[in-house]
Amino acid sequence: MTLKLYNTMTRSCEEFTPIAPGKVGLYACGPTVYNYAHIGNLRTYVFEDILKRALRLAGFEVNHVMNVTDVGHLTDDADAGEDKMEAGAAREGKSVWELAQFYWDAFRADLARLNIIEPDRWCRATDEIDTQIQQVKILEAKGFTYRIEDGIYFDTSKLSDYGKLARLDVAGLRAGHRVAVSEGKRNYTDFALWKFSPSDKRRLMEWPSPWGVGFPGWHIECSAMAVKYLGERLDIHCGGVDHVNIHHTNEIAQAESALGHDWCNWWMHGEFLTMPKAAGGGRMSKSSGEFLTLDVLAKKGYDPLAYRYFLLGAHWRQQLAFSFEGLDAAANAMKNLTQTVVKIREGYSGDEQPIETHLEKFRAAVLDDLNMPRALAAMWGLLKAGAPAGETYATLLKMDEVLGLGISEMSASEPATDPAEIDTLIAQRDAARAEKDFARSDEIRQQLSDMGIEIMDSPEGTTWRAK
Asked: What's the rounded mean pLDDT across residues 176-200?
């Protein structure tokens, strides 16, 4: 099967061919574990999950590696500011190690709730300090580094093609236009490989090195660990679109300068999840301190897989505007899908074969640059076709190997709360409405909603159902 994927480096959609026949090395930038992942972050990981599932659909064996940034990611892209981990530890009164473990565990829990397959290997930056030091030493030996007061920096002027991924106009950059200039930097685009600890205080995370006590720059961890675990030539490197201009640009500079040849064949970047103007507009960001997490959605009564469905409704290279109206539509679609699945499963014996004509439409969509809106349309086309229930269910199971919507686990909704308690609350709400205490009535409706119960008012009275 032919798989076409968009490549940020070439700005074109091309037939994917791996370096080694039948095998794919896939590196994905992972979380900085100083806070919860917000739903915008999670959009990128759903995209990468679909990519991995599509590669498997196309017959490839995938070796997926993801880093965990638990040191070195500063609050300013100009290699300045606090380490996000140390700032997070101070905020929460935890040690940096406790903070990292807590938020890594939370991140993995989010992946599980979204049916995202975990990577084959996790790489924590703090476990690979020597790996990073070794790559900096190679760069130093080749003449790509220089030392200033606060650390060892990469000299981007040594590369004629620096910024090729982002197609940066390096000559046209001005101080303060992209990043502020640290004192002593030779070029606006130079970046830290190793930062020195301040002389007047001890950092919470620091290590000895050939250049002095300090900590690695943010960019070096990914290139060093990707080379260590996936080899000197990489098939696919992916992440969010915000990584193109700085992080991935600097990864390429480091890796290709150290290796002496081209490094990665395919670069793939998931687009932003944006917020409506009423919520401040723009992409979701942790820096503001206000962001939506999967937990927040769950507490509002949404199944995390409804959010996954919502994300599948847009192409991974298109910005997606988040709204609760859109999420409601996705939740309703999941309800309809669940009801249909539960019904047709009764006609499935386990011996039925998938319907190839419908699978072919589905595969064609997935293999065409991960076109999930078309793939969902193919799924609904199957359900509307009126084919035998057993064969339809068998086809859905094959489709779900890519969709990841949990078809085999779907079941009729049952309230987690005692029905008598629900009836009592509805009676209290009816009484509040009769007394025109609409504030109390709305409060009880919200309480029921938080319990996963939807109520419907009609002239005959109020009924309820599990969401």
From this structure: 80
C-alpha closest to that of 27 among 5, 48, 55:
48
Asked whether residue 438 falls in the same domain as residue 296, the answer is no
Q: What is the DSSP letter of 198?
A: P
- pTM, two decimals, is 0.86
Non-local CB neighbours of 308 within 8 Å, separated by 6+ positions:
46, 114, 115, 404, 405
Number of domains in the chain: 3
Q: Which two tokens stand for residue 87?
A: 């700032």
Quick one: 316 and 328 in the same domain?
yes
Is the pLDDT score of 289 beyond 60? no
Give me the domain span that covers residue 459: 419-466
Long-range CB contacts for residues 88-97, cutoff 8 Å, separation at least 24? 88/34, 88/35, 89/204, 95/204, 96/70, 96/71, 96/204, 96/205
In this structure, is residue 11 part of a structural domain?
Answer: no
Local confidence band at 176 (pLDDT 50, 70, 90 cut-offs): very low
Same domain, 184 and 249: yes
pLDDT band at 454 (very low <50, low <70, confident <90, very high): confident
| pLDDT cut 70: percent of the chain above it | 90
Q: Are residues 361 and 261 in the same domain?
A: no
Rounded Cα–Cα distance for residues 440 and 164 (Å) = 60
From the centroid of its chain, how far is CA 169?
A: 29
Say how far apart CA 44 and CA 39 lie, in whole Å.
9
Distance between alpha carbon 90 and the CA centroid of its chain, in Å? 26
